[in-house]
Amino acid sequence: APTDPTTRHVAVLAFPFGTHAAPLLTLVRDLSAAAPDAVFSFFSTSRSNKSLFSSSSSSSEEEENSKVVPYDIGDGTRDGSAAAPTIETVDAFLNAVTGNFERGLVEAEKVVGVKIGCLVSDAFFWFAGEMAGERRIPWVPLWTSGPRSLLSHFYTDHIRRRFEDPEHNKEDQTLNFLPGFSSFRVTDLPLGIIIPPGKSESPFDIMLHKMAQTLPKANAVVINSFHQIDSQISTHLKTQFHKFLNLGPFTLTNTKPNNEYDPNNCLEWLSRQNPRSVVYISFGSLVVPHADKVAILVEALKESGFSFLWSYRGENNTTLFEETLNGKLVSWAPQVEVLKHPSVGAFVTHCGWNSILESIVGGVPMICCPFFGDQMMNMRTIEDVWGIGVGVEGVASKHDFLKALRSVLVEEEGKGMRERIGVMKKLAYEAVIVDDNVVDGGSSRRDFNDLMEIITKG
Ligand code: U2F
Known about the structure:
The protein is α/β, with parallel strands linked by helices. It contains 19 helices and 13 strands. Helix 17 (about 400-410) packs across helix 18. The site of uridine-5'-diphosphate-2-deoxy-2-fluoro-alpha-D-glucose has 23 residues, from helix 14 and helix 15.
């Protein structure tokens, strides 16, 4: 079928590490489906593009007609071979990235033959705001974590001033001066907001700090979330930015099916387990838990008798997982579907934002083991604000894990968590309703239409 003639060109700048580029691509595909006359030039590293564009479930014909076109840009290493992200590979990428993106935009304009009219980027890329400013086109940054961590980054300067005051520091470690944060403490803040005494800001910290200062200039700050998940925080952010648009959960708005790639037959295995009897374990795409932590969790699982499905990244230490354990160890699981499966009763997670949303959509309470970044704050939100999980922090013992497993899967507490997460699940589904009788559908649909106005104006 002939495709619509291209009259608009949107450039998209992805952060190629962790689960950042995938939700950005989901958003861009949804935008593309709604704007058939636009071409979206999608910039990421070749490693990131390869995994994103090959794992898509589209047919080759669809791919051919697709108006989302990947462009590879250098990752800051000489041969483009940066492996697993470390502080060094991320810094090398950041050092090279602005020049690489600039050259990429010029190339894409030549290829498409239409000037870029809008810049969509990962929110980390504050400099995309400047690039858009120079071109006098709209800038739309996507924040890939939750609204609370965004709000705390936004107040970086304010928070630093507070905690630099030695009196305040001594007596009061709470964040009660931020709206909706009275039960949060300074130790819950995402990394990079407070710089420990004697240390200086890393390139990553500087990027986050500049992001906080630049986001108010964006035409709209968008997020993979829904307003009702934390309406007080969302409402406050709406007063700070030109527009703050909740567009998710993306696993529900997605115009393409979610990744159901299941090479290890996890879903079939789950279908042979009892309802709500399985513990699903995953620490996301970056975290490799220390072998001691793995051993402790294995011990707790053994003693508890619960069966488990573990998407395992780490040393190949299968001797830990003896045959006596009723569990399945895989290198990849179709997580979105796993969390919707009735056999799954608890999710042991590092508290990455995508995992949290997927757990809410599945209605599965969480056992939280945060490692870095926004994960401490996400854990505190799950435990204290939403009451849909329990935290197992720091140097956890077998006893701590056992207690957490029992509280979610056996005790009365778990029942309350399931009820509360059930309410959130319902709100998530309501946010994405498309109802022909209701003019704009649910809140995330309305916000999406708002975003379309910005994209198609450019
Ligand atoms: C960084 O998070 P991660 O990439 O480590 O973790 P998540 O945000 O939880 O995303 C993991 C995604 O990978 C999918 C899973 C999630 O969508 O469904 N997945 C899967 O499908 N199968 C598997 O076997 C394992 C994973 C960062 F570390 C966090 O702190 C941030 O919150 C996050 C978002 O900015 O990015």
